[in-house]
Structures are given as C-alpha cells and as structure tokens.
Amino acid sequence: MNTEEKNVRMDAGANGNEPWMDVSAAERQRQEYLKRKQEEQERKVTPAKIRNIFYLGIFLFLVCAVAATVMCFANGVTRIPRRQAKQQKLVSALNEVLPPYNNAILKTAESKENPGNIKSTLYTAKKDGKVAGYAVQISAPEGYGGKMEGLISFSPEGRVCSFVITEHSETPGLGSEVTDRKDVRTFATLFAEKKRKPFPENLPPGKVLDQFRSRSVKTAPWRLRTEGGDIDGRSGATISSKAVTLLASRAAEILKEKLQKEGKIK
C-alpha cells in the first residue's frame, strides 16, 4: 500500500467511516449525514420562520379583505340593475302568456311556498279594472335535470290559456322536446314573413304543453296517459313529461283555491 492510498483511507476514517472504506463510500455517507442535518434544521422552528408565517398570514388576510370588499361593493352596485332586469324579464314573459292588460301586474303578486320546495306566485291581470286573466309562476324540483320553472296563464273563468317553461335543465333533444316551444319551419314557409298570431295562439307550438290549453282548473290535477290520465307525454322523456304535468296541475289547483275563496267557482 503506497503512502497516497494510506492517506485517503485515513481521511475516510477521520470522517467517521471505517478505515477500509473507499473515498466514494465515505463521500456518500458524508452527504447523507449533511442531508439529515439540513432536514433537521429545516424542521426546526426558528424565530425567523415564525415571523415569516406571521407576515404571510397578515398578507393573506389583507388580500381576502380587499377581495371581499370589492365583491360586496360590486354586489351593492349591481343589485338594483339585476333586480330590474329580472323584473323586466318576468314582465316580458307575462306579456307573452296573458291577454292585454293595463294594471301594475307585479304589485298583484301573491307568493307562497309549499312543502317539497315548491314555490309559486299568482298574478292577476286587469283591463280597465276588470280581470283579464291570471298567471301562475311555479317551480318544483321534479325535473329530470332538477329544478323546473313554468308560467301558466288562465282565463278569468279558470281555463288554461298558455303554458311556457321558463327554466329547466332537461336533456337537449329529449327532455327539452317536452319543455321547449319551437317554430316548425318548412321549405314553403322558410322565406315567408313571420306573422304574429293573436293570443293565445301567439306562442310557438309545444306538443306536450299545448295539451293543457282550454282545460278547466276544476278538472285538475291532470296525469299522463301512462298513469291513467289523458296527457300524452314524450316517449323516452317520461320524467320530464310528468314534471311538466305536475307544474300545470299545481298551478291550476292554486288558482282553483283562489277562485273558490272568491266564490267564482264551486
């Protein structure tokens, strides 16, 4: 063994290794030792780390406070415009399903909430002080996609005039065939000028929805033909068809209760 090799082995022994270990093994052991020391140092809680955590907490608090303030401010600024836009949308829908009226219809709202998260609002339309019709806005969670909302109008005598679904999450091309009204355009009428029909035929056709027209609230509740009733649902969309039928029936029963209290029907 020459002098240089002996010095290398002596150095390895001085680093805490056995004298017979070579340089590479001693270096690996030394690096592992230093790594463990570094990890222990990193895990050790020092005053500097405590200060950093404290400053980070303050920074996050300030960011959250600023974000919450901005959101609250934006919500306050847009609250009135959003409410006005929602009311205008509702008035437009009421104008579609009701005959001409000249009273402040939103002020006639009679709202109620029944068990099962069923919400409804009854509106009374008047023309020169006489009742021109009623409209019931109603929502329920029985749709295939969840919540479904409808708007059903009635004549003063309690017969269905128009029925539209204003909100739903039904499957496009299946459940939506029950809820949506669509214009049927043929090649012959494709370029013809679209003329607005008089109320209550002013809305596009709806195969299921139109079956309720002219039905009296006295005959409610209504059911699908598969459940012993006379309403034809859409094949493959039974749940959506049933939900639509339930909405119409509940709206009719709400109006029937009002008309009975007023002595207009028995």
Describe this structure in words.
The chain is of the alpha+beta class and 266 residues long. The chain has two domains: 3-43, no CATH class; 100-261, no CATH class. Helices cover 42% and strands 17% of the residues. It is built from five helices and five strands, in the order H-H-H-E-E-E-E-E-H-H. Strands 1-2-3-4-5 form a five-stranded antiparallel sheet, with helices on both faces. The longest helix has 51 residues, at 47-97. The termini are far apart. Residues 1-20 have low confidence and may be disordered.
Order of helices and strands: HHHEEEEEHH
| Number of beta-strand segments | 5
Number of helical segments with 4 or more residues: 5
Structural class category: alpha+beta
Strand order of the largest sheet: 1-2-3-4-5
Task: Write the SSE topology.
Layout: H1 3-14, H2 23-43, H3 47-97, E1 110-114, E2 118-127, E3 130-143, E4 146-154, E5 160-167, H4 176-179, H5 238-261
Antiparallel strand pairs: 1-2, 2-3, 3-4, 4-5
Summarize the structure.
This protein is an alpha+beta fold. 42% of the residues lie in helices and 17% in strands. The protein is elongated and about 100 Å long.
Describe the structure using short key phrases.
single chain, 266 residues, alpha+beta, disordered N terminus, 5 strands, five-stranded antiparallel sheet
